[in-house]
Design goal:
With 363 residues, this protein is of the alpha+beta class. The protein folds into 3 domains: 4-57 and 87-129, Rossmann fold (3-Layer(aba) Sandwich), CATH 3.40.50; 138-156 and 229-322, D-amino Acid Aminotransferase, Chain A, domain 1; 159-226, ATP-grasp fold, A domain (Dna Ligase, domain 1). Helix content is 40%, strand content 20%. It contains 14 helices and 14 strands. A hairpin with a 5-residue loop joins strand 9 and strand 10. The chain starts with a strand and ends in a 6-residue tail after the last helix. The chain binds adenosine-5'-diphosphate and magnesium ion. The site of magnesium ion (MG) has 2 residues, from loops.
Length: 363
């Protein structure tokens, strides 16, 4: 295979901007330099893209007038010759001007992980790592994930979706409804955020209002969920048509639940690779990870998170992360490392999946 040029997309407008930079750094350090050359694309908090940049050139002439006065073919020919004369292909954004073969997308969270950047790359005809538009969009929305998983026979926590506008109109009625339907504690979460931002474990009715209002301030759609008992188990999945599931890993939160501080500040959560589960549960959870990956139409990669109750054997899907953390100490690369796929090879496989998705030979 000749050396391929990889646009490494990182940073981004989401709350996971900083973690994305750390993920990108470890990808840059671990990618095989004999196979790939990296061009970094940094997106700042405001959404501005920085690269070795040449801006797209827009031609300024009356195409509509030309189409009215001549045939469509003649108008097209004129457009092409003007584009050629401009020295740059039309609408080619920066990627192709830089001869990018593929994008490695490590934009965690909103915009990068939810299908929007994927749609942009599809439009530009650039292959990219990870899931496509619809799987990304579904996995980003915890309420939609629940619907798809349920349809595929995968259990999720009993839940209720509410819209911020409805809650603002009649919070009392919705609070009553929640209290009637669920036993305490319940989890209240914005449907489409990550890193536990805006998530509250609500132990009694008096705490409910503030929790829902917080989630409503961050997202127009909010999920209320019954609390699930069990170990937090994560499975890394890799591939397109015949995906591979890693050995499961386990996170033991350092506090009441795996909240933002526990993830990034306190450092008290413990990780077990492989997870402390029986062989039977290990096989079952890997099987379900693949089932849910296929049900959502995932490709490339995803980390599928479950609650597994090793007393009852119940396996409950929590969520799917289509662009999981990629730092040296992140679960996704570590789980594959433990499954016999080192970081460098993992990156190569993800890029090959991107080419395969686009019908391009990786060799
Ligand atoms: N239904 C639930 N039952 C028990 N714990 C939950 C539930 N939902 C969320 N949690 C806890 O909150 C954490 C973050 O929730 P999660 O849905 O994974 O959001 P995020 O996308 O922000 O990671 C989980 O890792 C878990 O510790
Ligand atoms: Mg999570």
């Amino acid at each position: 295979m000749s050396k391929r040029t990889v646009a490494l997309l990182f940073g981004g407008k989401s709350t996971e901007h900083e973690i994305s930079i750390i993920s990108a750094r470890s990808i840059a350090l671990n990618i095989d330099p004999l196979l790939y050359r990296i061009i970094p694309f940094y997106i700042d908090h405001e959404g501005r893209w920085f690269c070795e940049g040449i801006a797209a050139k827009i031609l300024d002439f009356d195409l509509a007038g030309l189409m009215r006065s001549t045939s469509r073919q003649q108008a097209e020919a004129e457009l092409r010759s003007r584009a050629a004369a401009s020295g740059q292909p039309l609408f080619d954004f920066n990627f192709r001007a830089l001869e990018v073969d593929v994008a490695f997308n490590v934009l965690h969270g909103s915009y990068g992980e939810d299908g929007r950047v994927q749609g942009l790359l599809d439009t530009l005809g650039i292959p990219y790592t990870g899931c496509g538009v619809s799987a990304s969009a579904i996995a980003m929305d915890k309420a939609l994930t629940k619907l798809c998983a349920g349809d595929a026979g995968i259990a999720t926590a009993p839940g209720m979706t509410l819209l911020a506008s409805d809650y603002n109109a009649d919070a009392d009625a919705i609070d009553d409804n929640i209290e009637n339907r669920f036993a305490w504690p319940v989890f209240v979460k914005p449907a489409s955020l990550g890193s536990s931002v805006g998530i509250t474990k609500v132990h009694r009715r008096e705490e409910l209002r503030a929790a829902v209002l917080l989630a409503c301030s961050l997202d127009r759609k909010v999920l209320v969920e019954a609390s699930v008992k069990g170990k937090e188990i994560e499975v890394a999945v890799l591939g397109n048509e015949n995906p591979l599931a890693s050995v499961p890993g386990e996170i033991q939160p350092g506090s009441d639940f795996y909240d933002f501080e526990d993830k990034y500040i306190r450092n008290e959560a413990e990780t077990f690779i492989p997870a402390r589960l029986s062989e039977t549960l290990v096989e079952e959870v890997r099987k379900q990870a693949i089932a849910v990956y296929r049900a959502l139409g995932c490709s490339g990669m995803s980390r599928v998170d479950f609650f597994v109750n090793d007393e009852t054997g119940a396996i409950v899907l929590n969520e799917i992360n289509t662009i999981p953390g990629f730092t040296d100490i992140s679960m996704y690369p570590q789980l594959f490392e433990a499954s016999g796929i080192p970081f460098g090879e993992l990156i190569d496989r993800l890029l090959r999946c991107a080419f395969e998705n686009n019908g391009i030979s990786a060799d």
